[in-house]
Specification:
It comes from Oricola cellulosilytica. Belongs to the histone deacetylase family. InterPro entries: HDAC_classIV, HDACs, His_deacetylse_dom, His_deacetylse_dom_sf, Ureohydrolase_dom_sf. GO terms for molecular function: histone deacetylase activity; hydrolase activity. The chain has a seven-stranded parallel sheet, with helices on both faces. The chain has 301 residues and is an alpha/beta fold. The protein has a single domain, classed as Arginase, Chain A (3-Layer(aba) Sandwich), CATH 3.40.800. Helix 9 links the parallel strand 6 and strand 7. 40% of the residues lie in helices and 11% in strands. It contains ten helices and seven strands. The longest helix has 24 residues. Helix 1 packs across helix 10. The N and C termini lie close together (7 Å).
């Protein structure tokens, strides 16, 4: 069978090409997935917008209502990095539902990926850093509440620390949060995860992969989850505009294979989300994001 891949055209909120956030990468990623034969046009699992009640499990109810009604205060929109319009609201709702759908598919098939998600800067009270809702935190809380899982691991390898995820899940002992990130990068003020490792600027493939192997072994001794939410941000790439690390495409491919094989060999389902990636060359960016889906396809049985 093929890798279950979740995608909704609404993931692309149609920003101007000169916006700092490369919104068109979501549509291009879907195109690349089909071009590589990882999915056909009718193969994507398509999420509907998430009910507000789901989002309120992780976020302040008043903020959620503001997003659904397109009336987020300008000061909060500035922190998020773009206006909350009908398009960006629906995008956030669908992307969150997409991670929930991908997690449920992962429980069924062992692995599944969203073509969005990883919005890890959104905190309980409001969004931040191009993140409106924290899809992984919502998914974890919903699936715990519904009894679909008893424990979870959030493994965040985006170049930026997962501060919002750490904050939202700080009192949830059934979810272990782990972030490996660029220490000197955004956010300036980190929020303690259950496991944090800040990396020095300019770290290249070999040192990164050696470090990651040690991290995975340390986590093995600390947590045996029912599911892993894997944030596979490609802003660790040497050419990323907002990263400070120096991985190559090959290094990212080796990272994905190392992470996914580690958990699948242990029989732990993996839900992959794409996380961050920032480049004016959006085609090149989509080709970096597709590495997650390409490698994940190797682990579908």
């Amino acid at each position: 069978m093929r890798l279950p891949i979740v995608h909704n055209p609404a993931y692309d909120a149609k920003f101007s090409p000169d916006h700092r956030f490369p919104m068109s990468k979501y549509a291009l990623l879907a195109e690349v997935i089909m071009r590589e034969g990882l999915a056909g046009p009718g193969d994507f699992h398509v999420p509907m917008p998430a009910p507000a009640a789901w989002i309120k499990l992780a976020h302040d109810a008043a903020y959620v209502d503001q997003v659904y009604d397109y009336r987020v205060p300008p000061a909060i929109e500035k922190i998020i990095g773009f206006p909350v319009t009908e398009r960006t609201s629906i995008r956030a709702q669908c992307a969150t539902a997409g991670t929930i759908m991908a997690a449920r598919l992962a429980l069924e098939y062992g692995i599944a990926c969203n073509t969005a998600g990883g919005s890890h800067h959104a905190g309980h009270m409001h969004g931040a850093g191009f993140c409106t809702f924290n899809d992984v935190a919502v998914a974890a809380k919903l699936m715990l509440a519904d009894g679909e899982i008893g424990t979870a691991l959030v493994l965040d390898l985006d170049v930026h620390q997962g501060d919002g995820t750490a904050a939202i899940l700080s009192d949830e002992r059934r979810v272990f949060t782990a972030s490996v990130h660029s220490q000197k990068n955004y956010p300036t003020r980190k929020v303690a995860s259950d496991y944090d490792l800040g990396l020095p600027d300019g770290m290249e493939d070999a040192a990164y992969l050696k470090t990651l192997a040690l991290v995975l072994e340390q986590l093995r001794d600390r947590v045996s989850p029912d599911i892993v939410f894997y944030n596979a941000g490609v802003d660790v790439h040497a050419e990323d505009r907002l990263g400070r690390l120096a991985l190559t495409d090959r290094g990212i491919e080796q990272r994905e294979r190392m992470v996914i094989s580690h958990f699948r060999q242990r029989g732990i389902p993996v839900c992959g989300v794409i996380g961050g990636g920032y480049s004016k060359d959006v085609e090149a960016l989509a080709l970096r994001h597709v590495i997650l889906h390409r490698v994940a396809s190797e682990f579908v049985f």
